[in-house]
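I am still getting used to backbone structure tokens and would like to learn alongside you. Label the sequence line and the structure token line clearly, so we can match residues to local backbone shapes. Would you write everything just below, so we can both look at the same thing?
***
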Amino acid sequence: MFHFLTGLIGLYVIWRFIPRFALKPGHKALLALAIVLISQHHLISRTFFGTLASPELPFGVLVLHGWLFGALILLAAFLFLKDIGALVLPKRVAVASFVPLHKPRSRIFSTRLNYALCLAPLALSGAGVWESVRVPDVRTVEITLPRLPAELDGLRVVQLSDLHASRLLQAPWVSAVVEKTNALNPDLILITGDLIDGTPELRAPDVSPLRNLKARQGVFAIPGNHEYYASHPQWLATFGDLGLRMLLNEHVVINEKGKNLVVAGITDRAAERIAGPMPDLPAALAGAPKGAVTILMAHRPDGARKNAEAGVDLQLSGHTHGGQVLGLHYVTQYANDGLVSGLYRIGDMQLYVSNGTGLWNGFPIRLGRPAEITQIVLRAGSDAQPAGING
């Protein structure tokens, strides 16, 4: 389905864009072929160079593919908006390229618009690739939990999510993230899934810097959907060797200044593909101290309402990458119960959805939705936010 959709996008660009250039038929055919190949580069990579989740290609090739594919997606979006504008706007202000081309001034303006439609996506995509591969900044968020004991006020939790260690985001990048995280001197480090893309044999050197993560009360993690795409049991063993405590429908109790804090984690529903344990919140909370504040790690934000009803105080999620591109994030938002980025209140529960620390190498573009290393400062006291969902 994914390759079919990207193929349709490529055909749409060919149909709406190429005919507007004064090129020889042979040149138009070559340009159309290039667009088809760009739209299907995931299929080509999966067939000859690994898997859809983890094509084993050099960093430079992945950057080139990401740049061209991102430009294609942005061009398709611009063309779509241009076509919609031509349909709904009055004729006198309609998009210039739809004005009859026998008028010289219209022809000049249309040519300039076509070149702008070509160059703008290339420039934006280039900026987006650079934004996606740089080491992310720290984003500090204060979250008030009404039931948090005063003794735990100021507790600092660093959330990492969607690292996606791969041939795109390799060991030096992971090491820089670890160094930046440790510099925050956190009390807890929580990793909310999608740590890797690829098998342990291929990715072991790239994830090895994670063994250097340090937090006073420990480092805990959960799997995301990508952990189930390759060698899940072996990855669990590898993560354990790196000092990451995986919470698979279970919890730990953190004791801080004589007060208990429950940190729970659930699996991802992608476990179904390997007949693994599905997300089970009751199992994750079974035996937890009654009345203790609970932080839940759940890779996907959807389902947050049920978690709030179960008495969770704070849910930390990722998966959405913040939508990656401002505007296109509405599609991601639609697919995740309207929860895509930032802090939300759902009933008596707070939900924080990270933009992600890394991202999947198949679409390495970020525009207006930056990656983050999230430093969460927990605050005790009354919550002044109105009921409902905010974010």
Q: What stands out?
A: The chain has two domains: 2-132, 136-380. Residues 16 and 80 are 9 Å apart (CA to CA).
